[in-house]
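TL;DR need structure tokens for one chain.
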Amino acid sequence: MNLLLPVSLAVVLTTCSAQILIQGEPVQLSLGDQVVGGKMDADVNRKDVKEIADFATSFLSMEKNSAISLVKVVKAQTQVVAGVNYFITIQIQPAGCTVDCKYEECEVSIFDQEWTQTRKVVNSSCKTVSPSPHPAVPLGSESENLEDEDVKNAVNFAVEELNKKSNSLFRANLIELQHAKKQVVAGLKYRLTFLLGDTVCRNNPSKSGTDLQACPLSDPHRTQVCHATVWYKAWETPQYKLLDSKCELKQAAGQKKPLLGGDGHDLCHMGMFKEFQMKHGKFYDSPQEEDQRYKIFCANVKKAAEYQAQDQGTARYGVTQFSDLTEEEFKAYRSKPWDLTPMADMKMAAPLQGSFPKSFDWRDHGAVTPVKNQGACGSCWAFSVTGNVEGMWHNKKGNLISLSEQELVDCDKVDQGCEGGLPANAYKQIIKLGGLETETKYKYTGHDGSCHFSKSLAKVYINSSIAISSDENQMAAWLSQNGPISIGINAFAMQFYMGGISHPWKFLCNPSKLDHGVLIVGYGQKGNKPYWIIKNSWGPHWGEKGYYYVYRGAGVCGLNTACTSAIVDA
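>> reply
TL;DR here they are.
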């Protein structure tokens, strides 16, 4: 006969046996010695029994007003009513106790009605048992059965948490659980060792819980060994917490282990690379590219350390947003080598007589706009020019206006937009166009576009331009009296610059090979080191809040060889 039971309960009876579904799981029953509707013995390792035991432990912890841990489920029975009655005997102990512990054995009755989400303790009683009559689960760590469902749940949770924290575009899946230990301490702590591998699937929530069949490995030879500690507390929400984790690339079979020290490998590690990715939002299209970028990153970290060792100033070199780029790729943030021929017909500024301030900074006088970002477009020359014009307009007309670099990229037909240009040409083109629009009206896109300049929208104009002496005292005097100076510089040391006064050797930073346009906005001296304050166009997170401090007085990296300015009449 068939009995109809509510929602999650269904019983199929024959003359000698029955199968019952409890919380969706089939349980085979023998009816020879049982009374239908009476109590039935249950496997203490069954999933629903473990869940009920955790619930009972949580209840007892609140009732005693102290944290306790479940040591063992001793016995369990169930009774099918309008729901399920559970009768369990459990052993508990104070949470965290390891020496002279007080053990208790508790009998707890719980009513569970899944379809109404009702679960409550009907009655409970505990008695002290010392020493524990059930030493099968020691208080320290013990090796666990890797096929145990609780262990699997813990490692799956760890895998999902690691994917959430990962900066990779691709999901990592569990390859193999290698080792597991469990410790009873205010819940259960699982110490896990497992293998992870990058898959072809994107790392997003929709792929959560997928296995290797659904998301196969992209490179079976590139795996990580992970160690993680997961804390399970049945009475808390959420029940699982990842306490710590560490993953390292697994060395391929036959690969020789490098000697310790001496090769610079200790300057770089995967953790540093992951931190770099997180800080600068670096995402890659495949695990293979990520691997390649990591190699470039480490090579650049080593190169930055060499710059640091060779610098004559106080500069700090290290990890910047450009640390995963090759030298060739980094050229996109500069321009082509400058041909200074167009400067030949520029009028030279008259020499200045007399003294000039020991230090000066146009930022203190409101003549400098915030640091901008050219992106991967070689438009540095345009930013150098607009910065100069912004300062000169402020000093002559009294107001600071942020001007459009994109107008020069699109409309200056003598220069080459994102492929590079020269301030000497740009000044003439501004005059020819009829002025510059504002940054707001003619917005920066970071790539070459068609010109849509409107003379009626131009807010700033210039009257002419001028070349400035390469004598650095004359440069300082001119700057303090007139405004910021547009210059060219060899950007050799800038890819890894983080701060301080940069002073690379001349043989490393050739002064005749200018490839980057910047803006000198001031100068000063720290100790015995005079310096220039240079505004760059790589955003405020590069260098010292977007600025480059360079030794003054030695023509460092050619910064004094292409100095120019627009002229704005009063």
